[in-house]
Design a protein that fits this description.
- The chain has 301 residues and is mainly alpha-helical.
- It has a 3-stranded antiparallel β-sheet with strand order 1-2-3, with no helix packed on it.
- Strand 1 and strand 2 form a beta hairpin.
- Helix 1 runs antiparallel to helix 2, helix 6 runs antiparallel to helix 8 and helix 11 packs across helix 14.
- The protein is globular and about 65 Å long.
């Protein structure tokens, strides 16, 4: 089996049998494209020729190449893709040994997620106030992102029918896993206003679509457009910090935990498969508590 055929087979496997999201499969395709091209450049004509030393050399190449060397996190992701690919080759009998089994990813430094304060969130959301079609849409989108902690890809993929009984939204996350998340009163009010006063007019500008959030031409809002909407709101709010759709997700989790929410409840709301992923937010909350304690307690310093 050629490397190209093996890659295609693996991508079908992760897409159909494992049900991974289209964006994840596309990332795997890019990673394995880089890997395949490097193997070809090294004169490796058969996957059975690949050894752990080969993959170690590939890892060194990615981290040291002059043109766009990969960061530790990107390198770890790339290596994870390659490891999964070689494990699949072994399971399918294409090779007799897993060449990637002994190759370890680089150790990552722990990075705390960047959240903004409640007041900064309030300023960001207030920057979308207005009665125009775009303002109503932007307000509904940002209120939903902060109220639910949705990933931007989950928010723009929403259809009108995913808003259930006005106070619950059905989000479809990684691996097509669905979860139900409540909507707060602010998000509910903003979405109701958008659905009544803006979406019908926007829908009339394009072809019929079930999408919840529509652009000015009536088509579904893209992830890139959502990013631009948030950046524009941050500029109007004069927030001198970098804001992204994920900032609202981080802030959602941080503010819930700071308010006393159980970490496993937050895990469910975020759609994390492991509570370990959610627990990084407890470090942020602990830092906040430490700062408050240091400034308030008479014998803290």
């Amino acid at each position: 089996m050629t490397t190209e055929a093996a890659v295609d087979s693996y991508l079908r496997h992760v897409s159909i049998e494992r049900g991974l999201a289209a964006n994840t499969v596309a990332a795997y395709r890019r990673d394995l494209g880089v890997y395949s091209s490097w193997l070809d450049a090294q004169g490796v004509s058969s996957l059975s020729e690949v050894t752990s030393a080969t993959i170690s050399e590939f890892t060194i190449h990615l981290g040291s190449r002059e043109e766009s060397p990969l960061t530790a996190s990107s390198l770890a992701r790339m290596l994870s893709t390659v490891r999964g690919f070689h494990r699949f080759l072994l399971d399918e009998g294409v090779v007799v040994t897993d060449a990637a089994h002994e190759v370890k990813p680089p150790k990552l430094t722990s990075r705390l997620p960047k959240a903004i304060t409640v007041d900064q969130v309030g300023a960001l959301l207030a920057a979308t106030d207005g009665d125009g079609l775009q303002a109503l849409r932007d307000k509904a989108l940002l209120e939903l992102l902060y109220a639910t902690g949705a990933r931007v890809s989950e928010a723009v993929a929403l259809n009108v029918d995913d808003v259930i009984d006005d106070d619950i939204v059905r989000l479809t996350g990684k691996g097509s896993k669905q979860r139900i998340v409540p909507l707060g009163s602010y998000a509910r009010t903003a979405i109701d206003a958008y659905l009544v006063r803006a979406r019908p007019a926007l829908s009339a500008r394009g072809t019929a679509t079930p999408a919840l959030f529509l652009g000015m031409r009536g088509a579904r809002v893209s992830r890139q457009n959502a990013w631009l909407i948030i950046r524009a709101a941050a500029e109007r709010a004069h927030l001198d910090i970098e804001i992204s759709p994920h900032t609202l997700r981080h802030s959602f989790a941080t503010h819930l935990l700071a308010g006393g929410a159980d970490v496993r409840v937050v895990q469910e709301l975020l759609g994390h498969s492991s509570v370990a992923t959610t627990q990084i937010y407890t470090l942020v909350t602990a830092d906040t508590l430490r700062d408050v304690y240091t400034s308030a307690h008479p014998r803290a310093r």
